[in-house]
Design a protein that fits this description.
homodimer, 26 helices, seven-stranded mixed sheet, 708 residues
């Protein structure tokens, strides 16, 4: 195999073989060759077709081994039945990378799965990297390699502009459409791969290669389903580390959408909450729409990075200023403060009836008087309390050329982001400003969303400190999980949590009612008393939970009652557990499950109505470090409850974050040895400290013990 | 005054005077005349200018009284100082409507306010209706009246298309920009008014006139600040009644945005929650962006109304289908169910590898095979379980003409909404389909939002049954509010609520500790005991609230303690109140405040963390009827708590709605005689019934009694 990555090959390809080339440039099998010519591919094109001397006017070769120089890329345009032979030929000829268009594989369901596995094997044996099958190909502007058959290339006659923006799409159709939009709108998405069925090169692998290669300034991705979560984690980690912004549009956010996506891709969906957590971790900007994807790609590829979230808005309409203020507020941006000397400087530059507060309404004079524009924008860019400047204009067709020229000149004198909204008008200002590298949008909502993405990327969390994982946390885990029990009882579960560093409620197991009463006296009253059994899933329903017991006599009596109930219900394992009562300020839920895509993940949520009604939860692949644990806590919608809302004792957030870290390490260490771990509730006690009051560890495929 | 409304005049105007007409067609004072000519205004134009024989080649008149026939409209293009005289002249000449461009009024602050009041007076005395001042004018395509000076008219050379869509803008600049976007995008916004400072004709008045006139199919509005809330209520009521869809973009949703808007318009903001409630009541579709405003205007003006919220998605990309399913799920639309015979019919029409489930992935064959498109769309439109059909396509420049023609033909054979998303491509399909009345968008998120707006309008709540208001609910209110007290104590507040029909907790006031103990025995234990005093604002802080008392002795002892504390604190009014304890399943808050724009409004929210952290509240102008009260309950984010989430007893929602109705009538009846009423908590008891446990009535500017 080549030591060049697929991305390196595509960016620099000089020799392209087209295996199965057709003389009819309108057919799918003829288009790539025609497009290469049409867009002026400067290298060599080798059509391979045993039945023709020449194809589309270019000398053809009977087989790949006849091609005079080893191609960098083979574009296999043959039907499915002939693909495997072609890939073997690539291997023999030393072609490092093949792009396979053919469909007829796993996307058909069962009958195609075998064919796909077979092709995968053949490619591996041949030592050929594969893009596809069932994709739309690849388009790389730097090499002018138009190795695709999408008709968007055909008629629009793109500029093939490259602003260092890459776009990897798991959807062939949407990939082609969006690439088309980008190219016709003058957005330099010059590095495009449609990954198809991903038998080899997947979206995460290509993102990682793009980051490694180094010349890509922003990556856009259209995600339908990730097979290997760890590859995505690794790719996003590297992108964040190297400062390469990534924006992803992921279909299947909702339950219904995920079902549709899973049925389409044939891969398991994975929880969208995990994606959301992963995106937060690595500063991935999530596109909610195609517009977002293109807009975020545009601004993230820019060279100006906001140093903070303080924005100044310069507008010619007070109402538009208020509108943009709404958007800023929605998106967590701050309005820069204009006071003192700077306010006076701005006022001096504006007509008498302008509004100097931020939003700064410079009035319609901005159209007629170039100084109003020039001076207000210049002062705003210099203002030390401004991290980014937003200018809203509109119509002004007669003035647009002059105004655009002024804005371009002003932007050059500053390194702060300047974004323009130009509503209405001829559309020319949008083109002019975007071409000059000043992001410009027709709708102020789009502008503000794009800026917010830019700010969020610039302010993305520091990469997590390395968390040591891989070793079992304690001998206890081996002991507990290895003893072949049908499941872990509550006390064993909490012992495991405690050994991992999670503070647990003071408690004692007891074999008899008398032992329970004695244990209660040692713990101190009031206590809770429960049945302890690996056999009972729903303790509360069975009536074997007693709270707030005040005396040893009460414990004895209730314990006898519990044992009697268990006895009558035919429960074999009928021990008892006595716990110190904890008065909760707030209840949380801390859990770990095995995500089908990402493996063990850590979930932190608020309990009570927040869990029941709002599903207020933060999820991250396990393990997480302190920074990220703090970020999870801060990301809860109900975080105010932890911060002393309405007279509550504030939680010790550092202690809570530490518990999340320790728990997440347990989650990662245990891996697939446990199906799930749940601490419910994790109580914030009257000292503000977290305590695990109940614990549940579910073993894979074993009988279950649920939280009481 | 004329018996024709301003809207009737503008739609039919045949004679236009331009007062202060300038020979220079590029000046603001010359543009209207030039535009009228440019766009082929078919009626008479009378320039009025005492210093010229002719203006822009048309005979000029020294004054309005010299004009041969009474103009329908006078466009006053004079500077501010000359406007009052011009308006007086309009009155003398019998001109019913004047559009005043001049600025220099209240938008300048104090100095302009006097001038504005003076102009208002002059216009009233002259019997002339006014649009403006400080607006951008009016553009009416049916009459080809281009009575504006916005340069958008100048260079774009609009078609002046009218699809019966009106646009009323309180922002001059944004109005002009958005009108420009609409016209250049071929959206027939043919009735436009920029209302400026609204000294006479306001946005609500013009909406009402548009509805009354009858030929307008949809109204778009850009709202910066409403002065007279009741006018807006009346206008939206009428629009809903007559089935005229309204979409409004309101700036100042957020606290910061509202502050910016208030500073810009000089009017009080009013609570955005009230607007949100009003929009729900009348099925007003709220635009979150300029795109929304135009998109919603487009679909709402359509003649096809969905009968329900069941959508079928036909797409050529499985991933795009999943994406659209996400959006449908986000927006509360349902995926139509395809089973049995219909599923078979669809399968028979599709290529073998298509996916027949909804979303229906017809594969790329839709491009090459017209029958795939024709049959799948035709079957989907016939499918009885489908209320609206969404088709997603893209690129296909070679096929777009044929595909568009097929879609137009298919749409004609059905009365169901058909919306198309066409991603990428040349842009021609968007134009073709939109021109043919098939809404088409480039981003599937926009399509789904537009459809959701259409569905929400079609399914808007029935208009509230009339609620009788105006009479005081009881003599008690007169008695309580009229007795000149410093405020209402808790018992009096609840007596008022009870008289209005709100169930209140069983309680008794007591003058002494002994009386309290006797009252407790009669009520039955356990009881709550509190200080009853008009002098104490914060009962809990003073330590004069005791809960869960079990015996008469305990009540006596605690009552003596409370009286002692009150005595020591120097409280003059130190009576007691004893209440039956109510075990709450859920706690709500019911309140009424005086909104600066809308007057008394009724608020319903969930208590506890929902109030503290989430501000989960529904607000409507008082009063509300049963339908709307049910809708308020259903609109709470935490409504699941009322519906038995996690084993709770479900609330009797009808009983709760009845309480909201009765309370809202009290709120409306009392009007500005009280500053606010708060029932906190309104408890759902163990029978699922609502009970007011505490009540607070705040009198205007009087001392306060707060909820304990």
């Amino acid at each position: 195999m080549s030591d060049r990555t697929a991305i390196e090959i595509l960016l620099t390809a000089r020799r392209v073989a087209i295996v199965g080339a057709s003389d009819d440039g309108l057919k799918a099998s003829g288009r790539t060759q025609r497009y290469l010519k049409m867009y002026g591919f400067p290298g060599e094109v080798y059509p391979v077709n045993p039945r023709r001397e020449s194809v589309q006017g270019t000398r053809a070769y009977p087989s790949l081994s006849d091609v005079p120089q080893t191609p960098d890329v083979a574009v296999v345009v043959l039907p499915q039945a002939l693909v495997e032979d072609a890939v073997r030929d690539c291997g023999r000829a030393g072609v490092p990378l093949a792009i396979v268009f053919a469909s007829g594989y796993a996307e058909l369901g069962e009958e195609g799965v075998d064919r796909q596995q077979s092709l995968t094997r053949v490619a591996r044996e041949a030592g050929v990297r594969i893009i596809g099958p069932n994709g739309n190909g690849a388009v790389f502007a730097p090499s002018r390699l138009t190795a695709g058959f999408m008709t968007g290339l055909d008629q629009t006659r793109w500029e093939l502009r490259d602003d260092g923006i890459a776009f990897i799409s798991q959807s062939g159709a949407m990939g082609a459409f969006i690439l088309n939009m980008a190219q016709t709108e003058g957005l330099g998405v010059g590095r495009f791969v449609s990954t198809g069925n991903e038998i080899d090169l997947s979206l995460p692998m290509l993102i990682e290669q793009l980051v490694d290669e180094g010349s890509t300034r922003a990556v856009m991705g259209y995600v339908e389903g990730i097979r290997d979560g760890n590859r995505l984690v690794a790719a996003l980690h590297k992108a964040s580390e190297r400062g390469v912004p990534v924006t992803l549009m992921k279909v299947g956010r909702t339950e219904q959408g995920a079902a549709a996506a899973a049925s389409h891709t044939g891969s398991l969906a994975g929880s969208d909450d995990v994606y959301a957590g992963l995106f937060r971790r690595y500063g991935v900007q999530r596109a909610e729409s195609i517009e977002d994807l293109l807009d975020f790609g545009r601004v993230l590829a820019g060279v100006r990075h906001p140093r903070g979230r303080r924005v100044t808005i310069v507008t010619l309409s007070g109402g538009a200023g208020a509108l943009m203020t709404d958007y800023a507020s929605d998106l967590g941006l701050e309005m820069a403060s204009w006071t003192g000397e700077w306010r006076e400087r701005m006022a001096a530059a504006l007509p008498p009836f302008a509004s100097v507060g931020n939003p700064i309404d410079v009035t319609g004079a901005i159209a007629s008087d170039d100084r109003v524009l020039t001076e207000s924008v210049s002062i705003a860019l210099q203002h030390p309390g401004t991290d980014a400047l937003l200018v809203l204009l509109g119509n002004m067709e007669a003035e647009e050329e002059r105004v655009c020229a002024s804005l371009v000149r002003l932007a050059e004198q500053s390194d702060k982001p300047l974004l323009v909204t130009w509503v209405g008008g001829s559309g020319q200002a949008l083109k002019t400003l975007n071409a000059a590298g000043i992001p410009c949008f027709a709708d102020p909502r789009r502008t503000m969303r794009a800026l917010a993405a830019q700010v969020a990327f610039a302010a993305r969390p520091a990469l997590a400190e390395p968390v040591e994982v891989g070793a079992d946390p304690t001998d206890l885990a081996d002991h507990l999980l290895g003893r072949g029990a049908t499941g872990l009882d509550e006390v064993a579960a909490k012992a495991l949590l405690a050994a991992a560093g999670v503070p647990t409620v003071m408690e004692a197991a007891a074999g008899t009612a008398g032992d329970a009463a004695r244990a209660a006296a040692e713990l101190g009253f009031p206590v809770a008393l429960k049945l302890l059994s690996v056999d009972v899933a729903h303790k509360s329903e069975l009536g074997v939970v007693r709270l707030g017991l005040q005396t040893a006599e009460e414990v004895l009596r209730q314990a006898e009652d519990i044992v009697r109930i268990a006895d009558q219900a035919g429960v074999a394992d009928r021990r008892l557990v006595v716990q110190r009562m904890v008065a909760p300020e707030v209840e949380l839920i801390l859990g770990s499950v095995l995500d089908p895509v990402f493996g063990p993940v850590t979930m932190l949520g608020l309990g009570g109505v927040f869990a029941e009604v709002l599903a207020d939860v933060q999820v991250r692949p396990s393990p997480v470090g302190m920074t990220e644990a703090r970020e999870m806590i801060g990301g809860l919608r109900g975080v105010a409850l932890l911060r002393g809302a309405r007279g509550r004792k504030p939680a010790d957030e550092e202690a809570l974050a530490r518990v999340v870290v320790d728990f997440s390490r347990l989650s990662a260490d245990l891996g697939d040895r446990v199906e799930s771990i749940e601490v419910n509730p994790l109580v914030i006690d009257s000292n503000g400290l977290p305590v695990a009051v109940d614990g549940l560890v579910l073993l894979p495929a074993g009988p279950t013990e649920e939280a009481s």
